[in-house]
Design brief:
By secondary structure, the protein is of the alpha/beta class. Helix content is about 40%, strand content about 10%. It contains 22 helices and 14 strands. The strands form three sheets. It has a six-stranded mixed beta sheet with strand order 2-1-3-5-4-8, with helices on one face. It has a six-stranded parallel beta sheet with strand order 9-14-13-12-11-10. Strands 6-7 form a two-stranded antiparallel sheet. Strand 12, helix 13 and strand 13 form a beta-alpha-beta unit. The longest helix is centred in the first third of the chain and has 31 residues. The radius of gyration is 30 Å and the shape is globular. The relative contact order is 0.07.
Length: about 675
């Protein structure tokens, strides 16, 4: 029976006969509705029963390598995510790949889905080719052969994926057997490769000079392996050890840094030269200090002056014409609280409620003027000190970004738990509650908020800064309150004598996944500690736990310029001194080839001991050791002085004396 005759006999004639019956139309309508609705209901039920089991994994949920890692093992024993039955996604391979689809002999994957042989095919760009080379390099280290006939892996850009995002999926068997690493842009491609290696191959990128590649097998599965879209659109680090390493930043998802710009990494978010922060002095050419050079330390110019506006606009255009590839420029106040209070500026401040309104009106005008010539350019400004509070009656333009600065926050307690208690010297310096209020208020009027956070003690770089109990919860808070970019500033001036390398690694992980659990956070920490410090790492972890607990239990709130014995008192250190000394001694004894790392991080404990037990000879040796590493004592030149010159009440012969951290806040009165 042909198709036409079958249709007439089995469908058309019976329907015609039925329609002729009474009430047939109502009956037929009901049947048709049932036919339409029933499949939808069935599909919905099936979907609900499969959602939890079969939902495509995301970067947040695919933490198997970390979940399976214990303090006894730096790298995971098992790198395969939990089996699911997610069907292979339907993805169209670009035509240029189809033309050179490699011959696969079927022996690239074992019966247990272990990857043993691959053939890597990349897109044509420098970035895609480099991503393929990096994949081949690490797979070779894992013992996977890279050769013709192996399991095909395609590495390429796909405009359907979000910027900096990526997708990794696989079809293990059949004519279409292959794996696809697709990135939304150049950075997305390189991130996809490095994160696949991290999640499935047990590779860790701890510092620019320390990586670990596990010996475990790479076990694949059908379907989606990884899918990621960034939580924060800008992720910047400035810690000295990592902030200038383009390679480390690419491996850890940092897309804004001070390293070399390179297309092999997919580029970076680029600020214009000299246009990162505190720019109004140079842009306005206003030399309020009459020191012959307008810069970020000068008093701020008049923002209602047409002459100032035109000068700033002119100088911005000169810089943009010299480098039109920049992504963002800062039109931001100088680094002081001296701002114009002329009649016109005062009236503008009153109109908008705060000086931030006058600043925003100025920045909005600049952004509007430049948009026609630079449609993709973002103009940023600061919400910092006198501009921290959000204005009323004005909103940022769509091409304006506001960087809210947390400089007056307590960093020992999570912000949601902090009560802004006075410090040990009875000074209420922190204003965490005000900052949270201002952050929420800015969020009501601005859809592009970045946060400039602070993650070290800028007056005492070497002393312990026990913020490990707060940085995870604060990062989550920022994301949950709509922040789109993060810059957790650290010691960018020298190598660390504290825990700068560990903190850099953890901050990179938190910017990549601000919703990680406490267990995931401390797993990252333990992996780093064991790899970086050697077999005695557990004593160092115990020191971190103790100092974090003591600082967190303090009745006072600590800022980023606090003297070393404020967050944790001398009495508390003395109570645990014997145990702390034993931890560090054991760490040194078991360090092996990590001894230099242990000794350098131990400087923070030696620093405290020299405050607890002043000793001229021991202090002289300590100063020599610090200088031999090239470690700075503090950010500001006035405080960048050896311990014996800062604490002249303890070391009266040590030097001419120091100026203290800021505003005479040091209770030891150096």
């Amino acid at each position: 029976m042909n198709i036409k005759k079958a249709f007439e006999t089995l469908i058309a004639k019976p329907i015609a006969t039925l329609i002729a019956k009474p009430y047939a139309k109502q009956l037929l309508s009901g049947l048709l509705a049932l036919v339409i609705v029933l499949p939808v209901v069935i599909v919905g039920i099936v979907h609900l029963t499969k959602t939890t089991k079969d939902a495509p994994p995301t970067e947040t949920t695919l933490q198997t390598t970390l979940e399976n890692t214990t303090p006894e093992s730096t790298t995971p024993e098992e790198t395969t995510p939990e089996e699911t039955t997610t069907p292979p996604p339907v993805i169209t391979i670009p035509d240029e790949f189809m033309e050179k689809f490699p011959t696969y002999d079927g022996d690239g994957i074992t019966e247990d889905n272990v990857l043993v042989r691959v053939n890597i095919v990349t897109g044509p760009t420098e970035n895609e080719i480099y991503a393929g080379e990096e994949l081949a390099k690490y797979l070779t280290q894992k013992g996977v052969a890279v050769e013709d006939g192996g399991f095909p892996i395609f590495v390429y850009q796909d405009g359907l994926i979000s910027e900096d995002g990526f997708s990794v999926s696989a079809t293990l068997h059949g004519d279409d057997a292959c794996m696809r690493i697709r990135g939304g842009n150049g950075r997305g491609v390189i991130y996809g490769v490095y994160k696949f290696l991290e999640e499935y191959a047990g590779v860790r990128y701890f510092t620019p000079t320390l990586e670990v590649v596990s010996e475990s097998d790479i076990v694949l599965r059908d379907g989606n392996l990884l899918a990621f879209s960034p939580y924060f659109e800008m992720r910047r680090l400035s810690w000295h050890t990592v902030g200038t390493s383009s390679d480390w930043c690419a491996k850890n998802g940092i897309n804004a840094h001070d390293g070399q710009e390179s297309e092999v990494y997919g580029g970076k978010i680029l600020y214009g030269s000299g246009l990162f922060v505190h720019t109004l002095g140079a842009l306005s050419e206003y030399d309020g200090n009459n020191n012959g050079k307008a810069d970020g330390s000068d008093p701020n110019p008049c923002l209602t002056s047409e002459e100032v506006y035109q000068t700033v606009l002119k100088n911005l255009r000169v810089k943009l014409e010299a480098d039109p590839t920049v992504d963002i420029v800062s039109v931001s106040q100088n680094d002081n609280n001296t701002y114009c209070k002329c009649e016109s500026c005062a009236a503008s401040d009153a109109k908008y409620g705060f000086p931030s309104g006058t600043m925003l009106a100025f920045v909005n005008r600049i952004a509007e003027e430049l948009e026609a010539d630079y449609p993709n350019l973002v103009i940023d400004t600061l919400a910092y000190n006198y501009t921290q509070a959000a204005p009323t009656g004005i909103v940022p333009r769509h091409n304006v970004c506001v960087r809210v600065c947390s400089i007056r926050v307590c960093f020992m307690h999570p912000m949601t738990e902090c009560n802004d208690a006075k410090g040990p010297n009875n000074v209420a310096w922190t204003k965490t509650h005000d900052f949270l209020t201002d952050l929420l208020d800015w969020g009501k009027i601005c859809d592009r908020i970045y946060v400039w956070d602070y993650t070290t003690n800028f007056a005492y770089y070497i002393a312990p800064f026990s913020n490990f109990g707060s940085i995870r919860e604060n990062m989550r808070l920022y994301y949950e309150h709509g922040v789109r970019g993060m810059f957790p500033q650290g010691n960018g001036q020298s190598i660390s004598g504290e825990f700068g390398e560990l903190r850099s690694y953890l901050l990179a992980k938190l910017m990549w996944n601000p919703l990680m659990t406490e267990e995931e956070y401390y797993t990252h920490m333990d992996e780093f500690l064991k790899a970086y410090y050697g077999e005695g790492w557990e004593g160092i972890r115990a020191f971190i736990d103790l100092t974090t607990e003591l600082a967190g239990n303090a009745d006072s709130c600590i800022n980023i310029y606090e003297a070393p014995l404020n967050s944790i008192t001398a009495e508390e250190y003395l109570q645990y001194e014997e145990q702390i000394e034993a931890w560090w001694n054991t760490a040194e004894a078991l360090a092996g080839d990590r001894l230099e790392y242990v000794k350098r991080s131990r400087l923070q404990w030696r620093y405290i001991q020299l405050l607890l037990h002043p000793n001229d000879e021991a202090c002289a040796q300590f100063v020599a050791d610090v200088n031999s590493y090239g470690i700075r004592w503090a950010e500001s030149p006035k405080n960048n002085k050896p311990l014996n010159e800062m604490f002249t009440n303890l070391y009266p012969v040590g030097g001419a004396g120091g100026d203290g951290p800021q505003d005479g806040q040091d209770p030891m009165n150096p």
